[in-house]
Amino acid sequence: MDFNDLIEIAAAPQKRASKVVDGIEHKMHEGAVMLAYAMHLLRTTSATHIWIHPDGEHGKRFDFVGSLARRGFKKSTSVGTTSYGGEYQNDNGWRITINPSSGKGDVVARVGRHTISAECKGGIINTRHSGQVSRLYKGLCETVGLLMASEHSGRQVAVVPYTDSTCRLAKRMVPRCNAAGIEIALINSLGEVIDITRSAIII
Questions:
Q1: I want to staple 17 with a disulfide (CB 3.0 to 4.6 A). Which of 12, 34, 60, 191 is the partner?
Q2: Do residues 150 and 156 make contact, with C-beta atoms less than 8 angstroms apart?
Q3: Among 158, 132, 143, 171, which Cα is nearest to 26's?
Q4: Spatial distance between the Cα atoms of 109 and 96, rounded to a whole number of angstroms
Q5: 33-50 pLDDT tens trace
Q6: Exposure class string for 7-33: b at 16+ Cβ within 10 A, else e
Q7: Do residues 134 and 120 make contact, with C-beta atoms less than 8 angstroms apart?
Q8: Which long-range contacts (CB under 8 A, 24 or more apart) does 166-175 make?
Q9: DSSP β-ladder status, 182-187 and 155-161
Q10: Exposure of 122 by Cβ count < 10 A (0-12 exposed, 13-18 middle, 19+ buried)?
Q11: What does each of the 203 residues of the chain score in pLDDT, given as a tens digit?
């Protein structure tokens, strides 16, 4: 998987430039996290149909159509009024439906009679800027909180970008999240999933 497919590389604002190498930030937008986790579920479970529910901002910041095309998906139907909403099909039988809406879970899959529901957040993955590091922390906490408040049954997964700081926080959260039935998965820049519950990388 192409590194630049999931990461937006951009010059940092002046106030953050000293906190990244060569003043360049690597941004993993929330839409990229959603797509990476959707692909992970297609590869590692028996699910053949995944639903992604981005809001309007996610669609503006991440190229769902182009990224899906690079993975062999062709748009077959449209959903809603956005250019990217719709059902995408792959020749191997996989389907991804992008339905811009809220309150349905960012990424949802049905595996047999069970449902997997994931909440996702993005962020800048190579920065030492305290505000951006804090945003990643808060993103993980928010995804866990949303899952705790959710009425979805089945597996619930909080998904955020992998950084040293999110990994440390996730490991501290694991005992309480396990008690609540919530899993934590971290996405690295290659789209690989680090399953914190099992401390393993799953491609």
A1: 12
A2: yes
A3: 132
A4: 10
A5: 999 999 999 999 999 999
A6: bbeeebeeebeebbeeeebbbbbbbbb
A7: no
A8: 166/136, 166/137, 166/140, 167/194, 167/196, 169/137, 169/140, 170/140, 170/196, 171/196, 173/140, 173/144
A9: parallel
A10: buried
A11: 444 689 999 999 999 999 999 999 999 999 999 999 999 999 999 999 999 999 877 778 899 999 999 999 999 999 888 889 999 999 999 999 999 988 889 999 999 888 999 999 999 999 999 999 999 999 999 999 999 998 777 899 999 999 999 999 999 999 999 999 999 999 999 999 988 775 555 65
Q: How far is CA 81 from CA 34, 76, 100, 113, 131, in A?
A: 20, 15, 9, 31, 35
133-163 tens-digit pLDDT: 999 999 999 999 999 998 777 899 999 999 9
Can you read off the two tokens belonging to residue 141? 């906490």
Amino acid at 106: D
Query: What is the rounded CA–CA span in Å between residue 117 and residue 99?
Result: 15
Amino acid at 171: K
Instruction: Give residue limits of the domains in the chain.
Output: 7-196
* Phi, psi dihedral angles at 169 (to 5 degrees): -65, -45
Amino acid at 7: I
Q: Which residue has the tokens 């149909």?
A: 49
